[in-house]
Amino acid sequence: MATNTRSASGGSIDEPIYIESENHLEDVIGEYDVVLVDFYADWCGPCQMLEPVLAGLAGETEAVIAKVDVDEHQQFAAAYGVRGVPTLALFADGEQVEQHTGALPADRLRGLIEGYTE
């Protein structure tokens, strides 16, 4: 887990968090106000292109970026409705509010996040 936390109650983390289990993901979603979850695979070209975009957003926005390797966590990725990678799920106040399959440009992702952080 990143050490650059801004606050324990809904703040942000400046780099993506790599999720270790379904409980870990639930804890992160519950702890922070806005969480963008990237369901990815190491072999996925669009996922690799999205990685620096998400790392930048982690430092620029109030959202926490969480990364879930679908090859390591197939069952709970399926439980979240992931059918392709990358899939981006946005959670606000503990509830899933958006889900998109495919790489989205940085400005579109920033706009989605800012819609829930203001």
Could you walk me through the main structural features you see in this protein, from its secondary elements to its overall organization?
Pfam families: Thioredoxin. Keywords: Disulfide bond, Electron transport, Plasmid, Redox-active center, Transport. This is Thioredoxin. The protein is α/β, with parallel strands linked by helices and 118 residues long. It has a single domain, classed as Glutaredoxin. It is 37% helix and 24% strand. It has 4 helices and 5 strands; from the N terminus they run βαβαβαββα. A 5-stranded mixed beta sheet has the order 1-3-2-4-5, with helices on both faces. β4 and β5 form a beta hairpin. The protein starts with 16 loop residues before the first strand and ends with a helix. The N terminus is likely disordered.
Brief account:
With 118 residues, this protein is an alpha/beta fold. It contains 4 helices and 5 strands, in the order E-H-E-H-E-H-E-E-H.
- The separation of the N and C termini measures 25 Å
Largest sheet features: 5 strands, mixed
Task: State the total count of DSSP E strands.
Answer: 5
- Strand content range: 15-25%
In the CATH scheme, the class would be Alpha Beta
Task: Kindly report the average pLDDT value.
Answer: 89
Give the oligomeric state: single chain
Order of helices and strands: EHEHEHEEH
CATH topology (level 3) name: Glutaredoxin
The CATH superfamily is identified as Glutaredoxin
What fraction, in percent, of the residue positions are helical? 25-40%
Keywords: Disulfide bond, Electron transport, Plasmid, Redox-active center, Transport
Protein name: Thioredoxin
Pfam families: Thioredoxin
GO molecular function: protein-disulfide reductase activity
